[in-house]
Write a structure and sequence with these properties.
Blueprint: E1 12-19, E2 26-30, E3 43-44, E4 49-56, E5 59-67, E6 70-72, E7 80-82, E8 88-94
C-alpha cells in the first residue's frame, strides 16, 4: 500500500467560565498552560461572568482559577483531585 497513515489529533475548543462579579482579575491556571499566570487571563462580561476559551489537545487536565490572588475551584465542575498543597484541583477530560 502506497503512502502512510497519519494519526492526526486535533485540539478541542473548551470554554471556561466563573461568575465573580466583584473580582478585579481572574486567571485560568492549569497543567495545560504550565500553571503560568500570563497565559490565560479571563475576560469579564457585563453580567459579572468571566470567560476564557482555549484550544487544547485531548487528555486529562487539572485546573483552577486564580482570583485576585486567591485560588478558587470551578463551581460548575464537581470532578476534583487532591493537589500537593492540601487542597483540590478541578479535572477536565477532553475527548478526542
Amino acid at each position: 500500500m502506497a503512502g502512510t497513515i497519519k494519526n492526526v489529533i486535533n485540539r478541542r475548543r473548551i470554554d471556561f467560565e466563573l461568575k465573580m462579579p466583584k473580582a478585579r482579575q481572574v486567571i485560568l491556571m492549569a497543567d495545560f498552560n504550565q500553571w503560568n499566570p500570563k497565559t490565560h487571563p479571563m475576560r469579564k462580561e457585563e453580567n459579572g461572568v468571566w470567560r476564557k476559551t482555549v484550544m487544547i489537545y485531548p487528555g486529562r487536565y487539572e485546573y483552577r482559577f486564580w482570583v485576585d490572588g486567591e485560588w478558587y475551584n470551578d463551581p460548575l465542575n464537581t470532578l476534583r483531585c487532591p493537589n500537593c498543597f492540601g487542597s483540590e484541583n478541578n479535572i477536565i477530560e477532553v475527548l478526542s
